[in-house]
Specification:
The chain is α/β, with parallel strands linked by helices. The chain has 10 helices and 14 strands. 37% of the residues lie in helices and 26% in strands. It is globular.
Amino acid sequence: MSKIDCAILGSGNIGTDLLLKIRRLSDVLRVRAMAGIDPASAGLQLAQREGVAVTAGGLEGLMTLPEFSGVRILFDATSAYAHARHEELLRAFPDRTLIDLTPAAIGPYVVPVVNLDQHIAARVVNLVSCGGQATIPIVAAVARCASVHYAEIVASISSRSAGPGTRANIDEFTVTTARGLEQVGGAKRAKAIIVLNPADPPLMMRNTVFVLSSPAEQRAIETSIDAMISNVQTYVRGYRLKQRAVFDVVPASAPLTIPGYGKFHGLKTSVFLEVEGAADYLPAYAGNLDIMTSAALGTGERVARAKYLQAAA
């Protein structure tokens, strides 16, 4: 099978991990170039050793490389602020697809197992956030069985896995993840919280998902969640439940009061997840970064097949 040329914006942990994932796993994508802003970055040095064209001139530098002419898919692993400028510059190239790994919220939100098919032709897609990739599938699984009135998630990640880009994007994380839970997960209202855990040795990414829904058959929800977990595991091997879902029936006579939502009665579903990284470049505890690069790889391959390989055929 011929491969589609791609480029990576950002030579930090996420961009470097994605580079190695694509080169090790993909029979559809080929990384031709990586752009960063620090010529001494480990990511650019590794990419150069791998035979990939590099530039420390950011997107502008990438656009001057001869390899850029053949690139059809660009992965943005920089920051929400930088992505806004990148997206604007790349409007001049409507035949390219930009896959955003930052919470910039430009373009439709995409979680591969939930809604990628609906946006496969989009020029820009946004992968929400690490917390979104981990928890939106669970909310969507419940929404297949019941009307979801409110969803709240807590993503706990190791402080060591939160580099400068992650820390700069924390405000965007909470807003973008909450919107993703609504627009993709199907919740009418949502809230997202992120915790940087300083524990040493570092703990793996943990996600707690609370879903308040209309009454539904609990076994049907469990079956839907199990199926969704299996689907996510096709591209994130370390994605798993920590225990079975916990159900609580909230009666109308004793409703819950949810700040910003109001009083609720119905079914409360609590789901506890863990994400272990594949340790391609990052340590195994950095599941928050691994789930983003895994989702990016899965998205890029499906976009390549649908938009570029079919066109070439």
